[in-house]
Structures are given as C-alpha cells and as structure tokens.
Amino acid sequence: MVQAHPQFHTFEDFLAYTEDIEAYYELVNGALIEVPPESDENLYRALQLYEALQPLVGMRQIRLQGLALAVPGEPKNRYPDLTILRPEHPDQMGALGRAAITLDMLPPQLVVEVVSPGAENHRRDYIDKRNQYEWRGIPEYWIVDPVVGQVTVFSLTERGYAATAFTGDAVVASPSFPGWSLTATAMLAL
Fold it and tell me: Which segment of 49-63, 64-78, 105-119, 154-168 scores lowest on mean pLDDT?
C-alpha cells in the first residue's frame, strides 16, 4: 500500500499537522522537509547570546530555536537560532497554542542565525534567509559567523537591509538595542 504524502497550502495547515511532531520541519513547496539538528557549538553560541540579550529585553520576549517563523517564499517557515519577540507576541502565540509567528502577526524585532560550516549553510544564511527576513520586514537580522570570524548586522531601511560587519574587538552596534555592548570576539567565543 502506498501512503500519500500530505500537501499543505498554508502555514496554518503546516502548524496544525506538525502540532504533535517532535522534529522540526520546514514547509517547502507544500511538503515537509526535516531540519537537521544544530551543532553543539551553534547551540552554545545561541545560548550565550540569549543570556546576554535577556537583561535588555526580558525572558518573556526572547526565544531560542523551536520558534516557527512564517516567511514569504520557499521554505515558508524558518526556525531562527534566536528570536527577539515584540511585546504582543507571547500573548498571540498563547492564543495560537504554538510557538509560532504567523504572517498576519507583526515580524519579530530581531532574528539571529549562527552559521554552520559549509558552503550551503553560508548561502542559506547570507542569501536565502537574509532575503526572506528582509521581505518579512524584520527590523534587524544578525549573522554570527564563526567560520569567517565576523558578526554582520542587517538593519532594515526604506531600500532594504543595510549590512555592517564587525570583527575582533569592535563592539557590535545594534540599532534596535543601543544597550548592546558585546564585541564580535565575545559573540563568536565558545
């Protein structure tokens, strides 16, 4: 007997179907594609950033992985390494019953991705996700790249994202979080 693979037409269909599934999936052209687990080094870097950002935004507005973010294009969702929510998001997600930000919600304040080694991962974070986060209207996107030793801050302008790269002992400047004081070296450290 051949089992039919479900097709999903909306992000809400995807959320309903994956509610009781433990793994993470991206919705690509109506099909589920399992997202591989993160490396321990990336998880640790994201955790360090979580702890550094928490005093600036509070625990209620910060999420480590596991948050399904609806985006335009393909795939239709991403699981950022770290997300800073807007104040209304926790209540909206509570009403939704899922750790998810749908397209009808405002975009998060900040999304952070930690780049894994490999050309495909580099392309995904620097091109695919960058474009999707820009199209989604996310005000700020950070790429923490231990492979090239830099942190890139993308700030949304009227013309799209403007990028600023930070290396070494340069303090990473965040337009959304002026109290941020970590250097690129500190953000890249294990």
Answer: 64-78
Q: Residue 153's domain spans which residues?
A: 38-188
DSSP letters, the chain, are -PPPPP---SHHHHHHHHTT--S-EEEETTEEEEPPPPPHHHHHHHHHHHHHHHHHH-GGGEEES--EEE-SSSSSEE--SEEEPPTTHHHHHHHHTSSEE-TTSPPPSEEEEEPPSSHHHHHIIIIIHHHHHHHHT-SEEEEEETTTTEEEEEEEETTEEEEEEE-TT-B---SS-TT---BHHHHH--
The per-residue pLDDT for 75 is 85
Instruction: Tell me the pTM.
Output: 0.85
Count of domains in the chain? Answer: 1
Instruction: With respect to residue 18, please indicate whether it lies within any of the assigned structural domains.
Output: no
Say which CATH number the domain at 103 has. Answer: 3.90.1570.10
